[in-house]
Amino acid sequence: MLPESIKQLAARLSNLPGIGPRQAIRIAIYISQKESSFIDDLAGSLQEISNLKNCSDCFLPHANQSSRCRICSDPKRTTDLIAIVEKITDLLSIEQSQAYSGRYLVLGDLKKDGELTPEQEKRIGQLITQLTSLPNSQAEEIIIALSPTNHTQISADKLEQRLRGKAKKITRLGRGLPTGADIEFSDDETLKNSLKNRS
Amino acid sequence: MLPESIKQLAARLSNLPGIGPRQAIRIAIYISQKESSFIDDLAGSLQEISNLKNCSDCFLPHANQSSRCRICSDPKRTTDLIAIVEKITDLLSIEQSQAYSGRYLVLGDLKKDGELTPEQEKRIGQLITQLTSLPNSQAEEIIIALSPTNHTQISADKLEQRLRGKAKKITRLGRGLPTGADIEFSDDETLKNSLKNRS
Protein backbone atom coordinates (compact mmCIF):
# COMPACT_ATOMS: atom_id res chain seq x y z
CA MET A 1 0.00 0.00 0.00
CA LEU A 2 2.99 2.30 0.44
CA PRO A 3 4.22 4.26 -2.58
CA GLU A 4 7.38 2.92 -4.25
CA SER A 5 9.33 6.06 -3.35
CA ILE A 6 8.80 5.42 0.38
CA LYS A 7 9.85 1.77 -0.03
CA GLN A 8 12.93 2.81 -1.99
CA LEU A 9 13.98 5.39 0.57
CA ALA A 10 13.44 2.80 3.33
CA ALA A 11 15.57 0.26 1.46
CA ARG A 12 18.38 2.79 1.19
CA LEU A 13 18.07 3.89 4.82
CA SER A 14 18.32 0.27 5.95
CA ASN A 15 21.86 0.20 4.50
CA LEU A 16 22.94 2.72 7.14
CA PRO A 17 24.54 1.43 10.33
CA GLY A 18 22.11 0.43 13.06
CA ILE A 19 18.92 1.00 11.04
CA GLY A 20 16.83 -2.15 10.58
CA PRO A 21 14.13 -2.60 7.91
CA ARG A 22 11.22 -1.77 10.24
CA GLN A 23 12.84 1.39 11.55
CA ALA A 24 13.73 2.34 7.96
CA ILE A 25 10.05 2.16 7.00
CA ARG A 26 9.10 4.20 10.06
CA ILE A 27 11.68 6.86 9.20
CA ALA A 28 10.64 6.99 5.52
CA ILE A 29 6.98 7.43 6.50
CA TYR A 30 7.97 10.08 9.04
CA ILE A 31 9.86 11.99 6.35
CA SER A 32 6.87 11.71 3.98
CA GLN A 33 4.81 13.64 6.53
CA LYS A 34 7.33 16.46 6.94
CA GLU A 35 7.24 19.79 5.10
CA SER A 36 9.45 20.00 2.01
CA SER A 37 11.95 22.36 3.70
CA PHE A 38 12.76 19.56 6.18
CA ILE A 39 13.46 17.18 3.29
CA ASP A 40 15.47 19.80 1.39
CA ASP A 41 17.62 20.52 4.44
CA LEU A 42 18.35 16.85 4.97
CA ALA A 43 19.14 16.25 1.28
CA GLY A 44 21.30 19.40 1.27
CA SER A 45 23.27 18.20 4.30
CA LEU A 46 23.83 14.90 2.54
CA GLN A 47 25.10 16.56 -0.60
CA GLU A 48 27.53 18.69 1.39
CA ILE A 49 29.14 15.51 2.68
CA SER A 50 30.16 14.75 -0.93
CA ASN A 51 32.49 17.77 -0.80
CA LEU A 52 34.57 16.32 2.03
CA LYS A 53 37.82 14.54 1.39
CA ASN A 54 39.78 12.17 3.59
CA CYS A 55 43.10 13.42 4.97
CA SER A 56 45.94 12.27 2.75
CA ASP A 57 47.91 11.19 5.82
CA CYS A 58 45.51 9.83 8.45
CA PHE A 59 42.27 9.44 6.41
CA LEU A 60 40.10 11.52 8.73
CA PRO A 61 37.43 13.32 6.63
CA HIS A 62 37.95 17.09 6.55
CA ALA A 63 36.87 20.23 4.70
CA ASN A 64 40.30 21.93 4.52
CA GLN A 65 41.66 23.42 1.31
CA SER A 66 44.87 21.47 1.75
CA SER A 67 45.08 17.70 1.53
CA ARG A 68 45.74 17.21 5.23
CA CYS A 69 43.36 17.43 8.19
CA ARG A 70 43.67 19.76 11.15
CA ILE A 71 45.50 17.18 13.26
CA CYS A 72 48.05 16.19 10.61
CA SER A 73 48.78 19.81 9.69
CA ASP A 74 49.14 20.95 13.33
CA PRO A 75 52.83 21.69 13.99
CA LYS A 76 52.30 21.19 17.76
CA ARG A 77 51.56 17.50 17.20
CA THR A 78 54.33 14.97 17.77
CA THR A 79 55.11 13.62 14.31
CA ASP A 80 56.93 10.47 15.37
CA LEU A 81 54.15 9.11 17.56
CA ILE A 82 51.40 7.38 15.60
CA ALA A 83 48.19 5.78 16.88
CA ILE A 84 46.60 3.30 14.49
CA VAL A 85 42.82 3.23 15.07
CA GLU A 86 40.06 1.25 13.42
CA LYS A 87 37.26 3.81 13.36
CA ILE A 88 36.98 7.56 13.05
CA THR A 89 34.89 7.50 16.23
CA ASP A 90 37.83 5.81 18.02
CA LEU A 91 40.02 8.75 16.98
CA LEU A 92 37.40 11.20 18.27
CA SER A 93 37.23 9.41 21.63
CA ILE A 94 41.01 9.46 22.01
CA GLU A 95 41.06 13.18 21.10
CA GLN A 96 38.37 13.84 23.68
CA SER A 97 40.49 12.19 26.39
CA GLN A 98 43.13 14.94 25.81
CA ALA A 99 45.74 12.35 26.76
CA TYR A 100 47.34 12.01 23.33
CA SER A 101 49.41 14.47 21.31
CA GLY A 102 50.62 12.34 18.41
CA ARG A 103 49.14 11.67 15.02
CA TYR A 104 46.84 8.94 13.72
CA LEU A 105 46.18 6.45 11.01
CA VAL A 106 42.52 5.45 10.55
CA LEU A 107 42.25 1.94 9.10
CA GLY A 108 38.50 1.66 8.60
CA ASP A 109 36.33 -1.29 9.70
CA LEU A 110 38.38 -4.43 10.29
CA LYS A 111 37.24 -7.75 8.90
CA LYS A 112 36.17 -10.39 11.41
CA ASP A 113 38.76 -12.86 10.12
CA GLY A 114 41.56 -10.44 11.02
CA GLU A 115 42.79 -10.08 7.41
CA LEU A 116 43.56 -6.56 6.23
CA THR A 117 41.64 -5.32 3.18
CA PRO A 118 43.61 -4.04 0.15
CA GLU A 119 42.66 -0.48 1.18
CA GLN A 120 44.00 -1.08 4.70
CA GLU A 121 47.21 -2.59 3.29
CA LYS A 122 47.56 0.54 1.14
CA ARG A 123 47.12 2.82 4.16
CA ILE A 124 49.74 0.90 6.15
CA GLY A 125 52.09 0.98 3.17
CA GLN A 126 51.66 4.73 2.88
CA LEU A 127 52.37 5.19 6.62
CA ILE A 128 55.59 3.16 6.26
CA THR A 129 56.65 5.38 3.34
CA GLN A 130 55.95 8.50 5.42
CA LEU A 131 58.05 7.15 8.29
CA THR A 132 61.13 7.05 6.03
CA SER A 133 61.29 10.86 6.26
CA LEU A 134 61.88 10.61 10.03
CA PRO A 135 65.36 10.29 11.63
CA ASN A 136 66.51 6.66 11.25
CA SER A 137 63.40 6.14 9.05
CA GLN A 138 61.64 5.19 12.26
CA ALA A 139 58.80 6.47 14.41
CA GLU A 140 59.48 6.86 18.09
CA GLU A 141 56.38 4.80 18.86
CA ILE A 142 53.44 3.29 17.07
CA ILE A 143 50.41 2.54 19.25
CA ILE A 144 48.16 -0.14 17.81
CA ALA A 145 45.02 1.40 19.32
CA LEU A 146 42.38 -1.20 18.44
CA SER A 147 39.42 -2.04 20.69
CA PRO A 148 40.46 -5.23 22.51
CA THR A 149 38.02 -7.75 21.06
CA ASN A 150 38.86 -11.26 19.90
CA HIS A 151 38.90 -10.54 16.20
CA THR A 152 40.95 -7.34 16.43
CA GLN A 153 43.73 -9.26 18.22
CA ILE A 154 44.51 -11.08 14.97
CA SER A 155 44.58 -7.79 13.04
CA ALA A 156 46.76 -6.24 15.74
CA ASP A 157 49.24 -9.11 15.47
CA LYS A 158 49.33 -8.71 11.68
CA LEU A 159 49.89 -4.96 12.01
CA GLU A 160 52.70 -5.50 14.50
CA GLN A 161 54.39 -7.90 12.08
CA ARG A 162 54.06 -5.47 9.15
CA LEU A 163 55.42 -2.55 11.23
CA ARG A 164 58.35 -4.34 12.83
CA GLY A 165 61.46 -2.16 12.56
CA LYS A 166 59.42 0.90 11.56
CA ALA A 167 59.25 2.25 15.14
CA LYS A 168 61.45 2.06 18.21
CA LYS A 169 58.44 0.84 20.18
CA ILE A 170 55.24 -0.79 19.02
CA THR A 171 52.68 -0.77 21.82
CA ARG A 172 49.00 -1.56 22.44
CA LEU A 173 46.46 0.13 24.70
CA GLY A 174 46.67 -0.84 28.38
CA ARG A 175 44.37 -3.60 29.59
CA GLY A 176 42.69 -3.85 32.97
CA LEU A 177 39.61 -2.83 34.90
CA PRO A 178 37.69 0.11 33.43
CA THR A 179 36.85 2.99 35.76
CA GLY A 180 33.71 2.18 37.74
CA ALA A 181 34.05 -1.56 37.17
CA ASP A 182 32.91 -4.05 39.78
CA ILE A 183 35.46 -6.81 40.37
CA GLU A 184 32.65 -9.24 41.14
CA PHE A 185 31.18 -8.87 37.67
CA SER A 186 34.41 -8.56 35.67
CA ASP A 187 35.30 -11.35 33.26
CA ASP A 188 38.34 -13.60 33.83
CA GLU A 189 40.31 -12.11 30.95
CA THR A 190 39.90 -8.56 32.31
CA LEU A 191 40.83 -9.64 35.86
CA LYS A 192 43.86 -11.53 34.59
CA ASN A 193 45.01 -8.40 32.76
CA SER A 194 44.30 -6.17 35.75
CA LEU A 195 46.54 -8.38 37.90
CA LYS A 196 49.28 -8.61 35.28
CA ASN A 197 49.27 -4.84 34.72
CA ARG A 198 48.98 -3.80 38.37
CA SER A 199 50.96 -0.68 39.24
CA MET B 1 37.75 17.43 15.00
CA LEU B 2 34.85 16.49 12.70
CA PRO B 3 33.99 18.84 9.82
CA GLU B 4 30.90 21.02 10.32
CA SER B 5 29.06 19.30 7.47
CA ILE B 6 29.24 15.92 9.26
CA LYS B 7 28.04 17.52 12.50
CA GLN B 8 25.19 19.24 10.69
CA LEU B 9 24.07 16.07 8.93
CA ALA B 10 24.23 14.23 12.26
CA ALA B 11 22.11 16.91 13.95
CA ARG B 12 19.48 16.53 11.23
CA LEU B 13 19.56 12.74 11.33
CA SER B 14 19.02 12.81 15.08
CA ASN B 15 15.61 14.40 14.44
CA LEU B 16 14.46 11.18 12.78
CA PRO B 17 12.53 8.63 14.86
CA GLY B 18 14.69 6.22 16.84
CA ILE B 19 18.05 7.79 15.93
CA GLY B 20 19.99 9.09 18.93
CA PRO B 21 22.85 11.59 18.75
CA ARG B 22 25.61 8.96 18.91
CA GLN B 23 24.06 6.84 16.18
CA ALA B 24 23.52 9.99 14.10
CA ILE B 25 27.26 10.75 14.27
CA ARG B 26 28.10 7.17 13.34
CA ILE B 27 25.74 7.30 10.35
CA ALA B 28 27.06 10.69 9.18
CA ILE B 29 30.67 9.41 9.37
CA TYR B 30 29.64 6.24 7.55
CA ILE B 31 28.08 8.30 4.76
CA SER B 32 31.22 10.47 4.54
CA GLN B 33 33.20 7.34 3.65
CA LYS B 34 30.82 6.21 0.89
CA GLU B 35 31.26 6.92 -2.82
CA SER B 36 29.31 9.91 -4.13
CA SER B 37 26.82 7.71 -6.05
CA PHE B 38 25.65 6.29 -2.70
CA ILE B 39 25.05 9.81 -1.38
CA ASP B 40 23.34 10.92 -4.61
CA ASP B 41 21.01 7.90 -4.53
CA LEU B 42 20.04 8.59 -0.93
CA ALA B 43 19.51 12.31 -1.56
CA GLY B 44 17.54 11.46 -4.71
CA SER B 45 15.26 9.07 -2.81
CA LEU B 46 14.67 11.80 -0.26
CA GLN B 47 13.74 14.35 -2.91
CA GLU B 48 11.28 11.94 -4.50
CA ILE B 49 9.41 11.80 -1.21
CA SER B 50 8.65 15.52 -1.68
CA ASN B 51 6.51 14.58 -4.69
CA LEU B 52 4.13 12.47 -2.62
CA LYS B 53 0.84 13.82 -1.36
CA ASN B 54 -1.41 12.59 1.38
CA CYS B 55 -4.75 11.07 0.33
CA SER B 56 -7.46 13.69 0.49
CA ASP B 57 -9.75 11.22 2.28
CA CYS B 58 -7.66 8.99 4.57
CA PHE B 59 -4.31 10.88 4.61
CA LEU B 60 -2.19 7.91 3.53
CA PRO B 61 0.73 9.20 1.40
CA HIS B 62 0.48 8.13 -2.25
CA ALA B 63 1.91 8.86 -5.71
CA ASN B 64 -1.39 8.71 -7.66
CA GLN B 65 -2.37 11.38 -10.17
CA SER B 66 -5.73 11.75 -8.44
CA SER B 67 -6.15 13.14 -4.95
CA ARG B 68 -7.15 9.80 -3.44
CA CYS B 69 -5.02 6.79 -2.54
CA ARG B 70 -5.42 3.26 -3.89
CA ILE B 71 -7.56 2.17 -0.95
CA CYS B 72 -9.95 5.13 -1.04
CA SER B 73 -10.36 4.93 -4.83
CA ASP B 74 -10.92 1.15 -4.83
CA PRO B 75 -14.62 0.51 -5.66
CA LYS B 76 -14.44 -2.92 -3.98
CA ARG B 77 -13.87 -1.31 -0.59
CA THR B 78 -16.84 -0.91 1.74
CA THR B 79 -17.40 2.83 1.89
CA ASP B 80 -19.51 2.91 5.04
CA LEU B 81 -17.02 1.08 7.23
CA ILE B 82 -14.25 3.32 8.55
CA ALA B 83 -11.27 2.41 10.74
CA ILE B 84 -9.64 5.33 12.50
CA VAL B 85 -5.96 4.60 13.08
CA GLU B 86 -3.20 6.61 14.69
CA LYS B 87 -0.25 5.72 12.50
CA ILE B 88 0.30 4.85 8.84
CA THR B 89 2.12 1.73 10.05
CA ASP B 90 -1.06 0.71 11.95
CA LEU B 91 -2.96 0.93 8.65
CA LEU B 92 -0.31 -1.21 6.94
CA SER B 93 -0.52 -3.86 9.67
CA ILE B 94 -4.33 -4.03 9.39
CA GLU B 95 -4.06 -4.31 5.60
CA GLN B 96 -1.54 -7.12 6.00
CA SER B 97 -3.98 -9.08 8.18
CA GLN B 98 -6.38 -9.19 5.18
CA ALA B 99 -9.22 -9.16 7.69
CA TYR B 100 -10.54 -5.70 6.85
CA SER B 101 -12.27 -4.42 3.72
CA GLY B 102 -13.38 -0.94 4.74
CA ARG B 103 -11.66 2.42 4.51
CA TYR B 104 -9.46 4.36 6.89
CA LEU B 105 -8.75 7.65 8.49
CA VAL B 106 -5.14 8.18 9.61
CA LEU B 107 -4.99 10.62 12.54
CA GLY B 108 -1.22 10.97 13.00
CA ASP B 109 0.63 10.72 16.32
CA LEU B 110 -1.66 11.24 19.29
CA LYS B 111 -0.64 13.51 22.15
CA LYS B 112 0.06 11.88 25.51
CA ASP B 113 -2.58 14.01 27.23
CA GLY B 114 -5.28 12.57 24.98
CA GLU B 115 -6.18 15.95 23.42
CA LEU B 116 -6.60 16.04 19.65
CA THR B 117 -4.38 18.46 17.72
CA PRO B 118 -5.99 21.06 15.42
CA GLU B 119 -4.89 18.93 12.43
CA GLN B 120 -6.56 15.85 13.94
CA GLU B 121 -9.74 17.85 14.65
CA LYS B 122 -9.69 18.95 11.01
CA ARG B 123 -9.37 15.35 9.78
CA ILE B 124 -12.27 14.20 11.97
CA GLY B 125 -14.36 17.15 10.80
CA GLN B 126 -13.64 16.23 7.19
CA LEU B 127 -14.63 12.60 7.82
CA ILE B 128 -17.92 13.74 9.35
CA THR B 129 -18.61 15.90 6.28
CA GLN B 130 -17.88 12.93 3.99
CA LEU B 131 -20.27 10.73 5.95
CA THR B 132 -23.16 13.10 5.09
CA SER B 133 -23.07 11.71 1.51
CA LEU B 134 -23.99 8.24 2.84
CA PRO B 135 -27.59 7.02 3.34
CA ASN B 136 -28.96 8.59 6.55
CA SER B 137 -25.72 10.62 6.65
CA GLN B 138 -24.29 7.78 8.70
CA ALA B 139 -21.59 5.16 8.39
CA GLU B 140 -22.54 1.58 9.09
CA GLU B 141 -19.66 1.30 11.53
CA ILE B 142 -16.68 3.31 12.70
CA ILE B 143 -13.90 1.28 14.33
CA ILE B 144 -11.71 3.34 16.64
CA ALA B 145 -8.61 1.25 15.92
CA LEU B 146 -6.09 2.74 18.33
CA SER B 147 -3.40 0.68 20.07
CA PRO B 148 -4.78 -0.02 23.56
CA THR B 149 -2.41 2.00 25.73
CA ASN B 150 -3.36 4.23 28.64
CA HIS B 151 -3.07 7.53 26.85
CA THR B 152 -4.92 6.45 23.70
CA GLN B 153 -7.94 5.50 25.80
CA ILE B 154 -8.59 9.19 26.49
CA SER B 155 -8.27 10.01 22.78
CA ALA B 156 -10.56 7.09 21.92
CA ASP B 157 -13.21 8.39 24.35
CA LYS B 158 -12.96 11.86 22.83
CA LEU B 159 -13.28 10.44 19.31
CA GLU B 160 -16.31 8.41 20.33
CA GLN B 161 -17.95 11.55 21.72
CA ARG B 162 -17.21 13.54 18.55
CA LEU B 163 -18.55 10.77 16.30
CA ARG B 164 -21.72 9.96 18.23
CA GLY B 165 -24.64 9.73 15.79
CA LYS B 166 -22.32 9.62 12.76
CA ALA B 167 -22.37 5.79 12.59
CA LYS B 168 -24.84 3.07 13.51
CA LYS B 169 -22.08 1.41 15.51
CA ILE B 170 -18.89 2.81 17.00
CA THR B 171 -16.57 0.00 18.05
CA ARG B 172 -13.03 -0.56 19.31
CA LEU B 173 -10.59 -3.39 18.61
CA GLY B 174 -11.17 -6.58 20.61
CA ARG B 175 -9.20 -7.01 23.81
CA GLY B 176 -7.87 -10.26 25.20
CA LEU B 177 -4.88 -12.57 25.11
CA PRO B 178 -2.64 -12.20 22.06
CA THR B 179 -1.79 -15.37 20.11
CA GLY B 180 1.10 -17.17 21.78
CA ALA B 181 0.54 -15.44 25.12
CA ASP B 182 1.29 -17.19 28.38
CA ILE B 183 -1.51 -16.76 30.94
CA GLU B 184 1.04 -16.91 33.75
CA PHE B 185 2.83 -13.81 32.47
CA SER B 186 -0.18 -11.82 31.25
CA ASP B 187 -1.08 -8.61 33.05
CA ASP B 188 -4.30 -8.26 35.07
CA GLU B 189 -5.92 -5.90 32.59
CA THR B 190 -5.39 -8.32 29.70
CA LEU B 191 -6.67 -11.29 31.71
CA LYS B 192 -9.72 -9.33 32.84
CA ASN B 193 -10.48 -8.50 29.20
CA SER B 194 -9.89 -12.08 28.07
CA LEU B 195 -12.46 -13.29 30.61
CA LYS B 196 -14.97 -10.57 29.75
CA ASN B 197 -14.63 -11.23 26.02
CA ARG B 198 -14.58 -15.02 26.18
CA SER B 199 -16.38 -16.67 23.28
Automatic annotation (TrEMBL), chains A, B:
Domain of life: Bacteria
Gene Ontology BP annotations: DNA recombination; DNA repair
A GO molecular-function descriptor: DNA binding
Pfam families found in the cross-reference section: RecR_C, RecR_HhH, Toprim_4
The keyword Zinc-finger is assigned to this record: yes
InterPro entries: DNA_Rcmb_RecR, Rcmb_RecR, TOPRIM_dom
Function: May play a role in DNA repair. It seems to be involved in an RecBC-independent recombinational process of DNA repair. It may act with RecF and RecO.
Alphabetized HAMAP family for the sequence: RecR
Protein name: Recombination protein RecR
Taxonomic source organism: Candidatus Harrisonbacteria bacterium CG10_big_fil_rev_8_21_14_0_10_44_23
